[in-house]
Each structure stands twice: as structure tokens, then as C-alpha cells.
Amino acid sequence: MTEQRKSIERKQFFPSTIGIVSILFMLIIIGYQLMEDPNRPEPSQNSSLEEWHVEWTAKDLPIEVDLPSTLQIIVMDEANKWVKNAKVKTVIQNNSQVEELQFVPVEDGLYEARVLFSSPGLWRGTLTVQQGEDTINQPIEITVK
């Protein structure tokens, strides 16, 4: 009877051991995949600015002459993460009138500037985003009514 009991215990021990080892192995793999390396830089700190997404909009539409408007710039990196601490500015002109705007950070990846356009029409210029030594220049067109 003792030999029969040992045989039963071995049969029960083997499947349960494989199950426990399998579960532990799966947990280790899942933990490894979820774990982030604390020394790895954020993508926005180590990526090329040419791959960033830069979009603008006006908070107050339509943009009208002699009414204050807030322009907003959204900057995201190639991984669609907000780009923080960038320097954002634009120089736009309409005929002989020129406006230079410095955008201030509002929250992650969102920058704003207030402007008062003095004449209607199409204002064209260059939007500049600078992060460290890298700079993006993107054309911008704003229609003022």
C-alpha cells in the first residue's frame, strides 16, 4: 500500500509542479514586458524633430481684425507623446505688416500665444519649434477676416 501511495503522490506532484512552473514563467515574461528601463530616455528626448507632428489652431474662431485671438500649437513626437519644454515661435506677415509671436507652454505639448491682427487677409510665415540643438521650421498660413 505504501508503494501505491507513493505512485499516486508522484502522479499528483508532477502535473501540479508543471502548472506552477508554467504560471511563474508566464508571470516573469509579463513582468519583463511591462517593466520599463529607468535609464532609457523618453522618446521625445532622443528622437528626430523631423518626425514630430506640429499642428496649429485658433482658440477663438473666426480670427478677426482688431479682436484678440489665441493661437495654439500642439507638438507631439513620432510616438505621439507630448513634447514638453520646446521653444515655439512664429513670424508671420501680411504685406508690410509683421508679427512675431512667442508661444508659452500651457500644458504637456500645448503652447499658446495671444495676437491682435491689424489687417484682414492671408498672413503667411514660418512656425519654429526648437528642442535643444534641433529646430523644425514649418510654413504657416492664417486667414484673418
UniProtKB/TrEMBL annotation:
Entry's transmembrane regions: 12-35
Keywords, in A-Z order: Membrane, Transmembrane, Transmembrane helix
Species this protein is from: Evansella vedderi
Protein name, per record: YtkA-like domain-containing protein
